Amino acid sequence: MRVAPPHIRKTRTTADVMGDVCIALIPTILAAVWFFRIDALLRLTLAAVCSLVAGRLTGKRDGPDLAALVSGLILCLSCPSQTPLWLLVGGCFFAVCVVRDGFGGIGQNLFNPAMAARGLMLAIFPSQLTGFGLPGALSSATPLVGDASLFDLVVGRIGGSMGETSALIIAIGLAWLLIRRVIRWHIPLLSLAGFSLLTLLAGEPLLPALFSGGLLFGAVFVFTDYTTKPITLAGEIAFALAVGVLTAVLRFYGPYPEGVCFAVLAMNLVAPLFEFLTIPKGVSQ
Amino acid sequence: MRLFHGGIKLTEGNELKERAAEEHIHTLAASTLYLPLFVQKRSLCACVAAGDRVDIGTRVAEDPSGFLPPVHSGVSGTVRAIDTFHPCAEGGEVPTVVIDNDGQGRACLLPPLAETAAPDAIVERMYEAGLVGMGGAGYPTHRKYRDLTAEWLLINACECEPYLAADASLSRHFLTLIVEGVHRMATAARVAPAHIRLCTESAQTAAALKQSGLSVVTLTKRYPQGSERQLVEAVLDKRLPDGVLPTQAGVVVSNVGTAAAMGDAARGLALTHRIVTVSGYVKQPRNLLVPIGTPFADIAAAVQPKTADRRVRYIAGGPMTGRRLTTLKAGLPKTCGGLTLLPSHSFSATPCIRCGACVRACPSSLLPFLIEQAVLQGEKERYRPLRTTACLSCGCCSFVCPAKRPLAARITAAKRELKEGIQ
Ligand code: SF4
Ligand code: SF4
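^ inputs. structure came back:
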């Protein structure tokens, strides 16, 4: 096989792709540290170290497992700043070693590792993840923002999880992913479209809903996860619309105040079906 | 700009390609020719015996089934042997006709083709003169044009690969020959002159071709624009269904090199020489006019590698679809338009991350990563639903894969398995 054509390859490697995702997360990380200070710094560092160690244990052996790092950082950013450290450590190992590598490893796992870990943590330890009574934290009722102004939501504020401080900051990450062609625009845009549609139908105010509760973070960094979305363009479009709608349904009518996590997990289950149904048939005769 | 679906943007080798296109064509004299008696998986029989005197254009071997056209000598001289096993560019060692050049350059010509030759006579001449597609696939030209009534004739001057510049230099230096060949081909395929299109990706080549008075289409630079189906898609905005050949859809596509060979054939010259671009990891790329059967070693000797590094790889053809040569003793086949030197490099595959790059790059709209998975898991029943036979073996999927998976190689193997299963 080694002598088979093509004899030249693009220079970009898997590590480059994952590195680009890490770079795209940097603005969000900096914003988290700015708003939550030492709490965020400590937790992000811990999550990074744990996920890299976890990756080394069950995943890639040669060089740092940047894909695991991405999962760990996304998990950490989707948690509140007061998350107990032991819970975060457990979450990182669970995400990488069980959800990802226990289900076939990179590119094979059924669920998004960060969101599966997040969902399990929330299900088992709801009070540790929601019970800190922070303004606008996940415990607050709909709309998630409490009394935060729209300006705060877009530019920056304290509340909710560490990764949802500022829409503008997330947009910088999105721009980087698009410029580097790591992702295409369809999923972020269409998932927001699906969400908006249902929000309007439900008669909720659209803009505060759009800019709060981790939706933007999810649309850019979670819904776009290569492994757990359909690979075909038509599949991606259907997946994006559905996950947006489901997020809104769960947020307005579900048991938890937030919808992204369980919407993604539910859609991960049907993504293979979407992919199968949209395999290109070729040109018909 | 007109475009086909999928494909990749290749920058590698473009500058060398332009430099090679500007070069004059150098003629290479071979002291010995090696003409294998096993071509495209078919056995040929020799028409000469050891010790025979041959001229340029003497018929040396032919295919008893009549599928492949005959092979002719590219030098005048003596047949040294007809059955020694010798390395072959298609791999392995096969019986080979070996001809020593006496340097006198005697030629034997076929009678020139009448101006008014009918389609059948032209097709007959295609066979006699040994014409095959010069773009790489090497499909026998007489088979393609036999009893054909097409609507369009597309002449492909797109260069099938990065680095190669044979089409560009032909268009610049042999335009009258090309024009003559194109008219003969149009007659053979019963295509009206208004439905002939010369197609190229390069502005310079387009400028050269425009002097012919025929209509020229300039396409976007994108690989694999030189592939027939992609050419039809870009020029005529027609996507061909799987398994349907362009000729079945009323379009006949021939390489500009084949047109030049047709021009020669009309004047009585068999296909005995071709243009070869020697490029890649070399100080100065060159276009050479080489007798078919010249050992690659002689061709390689015409250029200097960039460094004296012995770990350079030699590729017969271009870097995307060419075959790596394990020995330079093999003779140049009719279909090989390049010798590309590349620095030694190996790619180690990591697990697929499902990034979708291969899916977007595939000009046939396949899901390369899934076909590879089916191959690795031995699930042959999935080959057909995944449309494996529609693979062009263009290599785009492997090229873009960040995990460096050998997708094209595995899919090509699966396709071959399916096709051999049919026969
Ligand atoms: S390009 Fe490579 S890594 Fe990406 S989906 Fe295809 S096979 Fe997988
Ligand atoms: S080699 Fe085959 S599967 Fe790969 S891109 Fe080309 S046509 Fe598609």
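Residues 131-143 of chain A have pLDDT under 50 and may be disordered. Residues 14-278 of chain A form a domain with the Ammonium transporter fold fold (CATH 1.10.3430).
thumbs up if we can close this ticket
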